[in-house]
Amino acid sequence: MDAEGGEPGMVRPGGRTARVRDAVLRAAGDALAEHGFGGLDLADVARRAEVGKTTVYRRWSTPAGLVADLLAYMADQSVPRTDLGSLDQDLAANARLVVRTLTDPRQGALFTSVIAAATCDTRTAKALHRFYEVRVKEWAGCVEAAVERGELPAGTDASEVIRAVSAPLYYRLLTGGGALDEAAADRAAEAAAVAARAGVYVS
């Protein structure tokens, strides 16, 4: 559990408990990608993970609790940011990573399902927000470094720049508004970089 008290199952266990958690969360991700949040069934997840139903019900209790822990797990396992030494290259790397994730058959379907669930389930929404807070904070470091190098104005809101990179890519995912490819990634990164240099994101 985190210090503030969170979702069932949100722990950082070790040994066999960690292996069970890994298996259950991988199974939950597979189930979400296949059936969406509405089709997420704890008994089915237990079967896929080859663990007892009692274990799953006791530790996670609800689909929302399971998804919350899955998002925490995904944040922990996410690829660290790239540090290529220039704002343009770093933002392009971030955008391309987002595109690779969202176009992956499993990961793209998983994120679509979780985002949809977050619109109608408060606990899932909170867990999704925590996930993106972790990822934005990770990548904000490349923008902060650009400010220190003099590439961007002092006072630039690093988190807002990173959000600006991802926003058009998620819009394409959720609306089907055009190809979600490297060209789209590069355009999103370039637009965010141009706006940041112009001082759009200065607090």
TrEMBL record:
* InterPro entries the record matches: Homeodomain-like_sf, HTH-type_TetR-like_transc_reg, HTH_TetR, Tet_transcr_reg_TetR-rel_C_sf, TetR_C
Superkingdom, taxonomy of origin: Bacteria
Alphabetical UniProt keywords: DNA-binding, Transcription, Transcription regulation
Keyword field contains Transcription:
yes
Occurrences of domain HTH tetR-type (ranges):
18-78
DNA-binding segment(s): 41-60
Q: Which GO terms describe its molecular function?
A: DNA-binding transcription factor activity; transcription cis-regulatory region binding
For the keyword Iron-sulfur, the answer is no
Task: Tell me the protein's name.
Answer: TetR family transcriptional regulator
Protein's organism? Streptomyces finlayi
At the highest ranks, the source species' classification is: Bacteria, Bacillati, Actinomycetota, Actinomycetes, Kitasatosporales
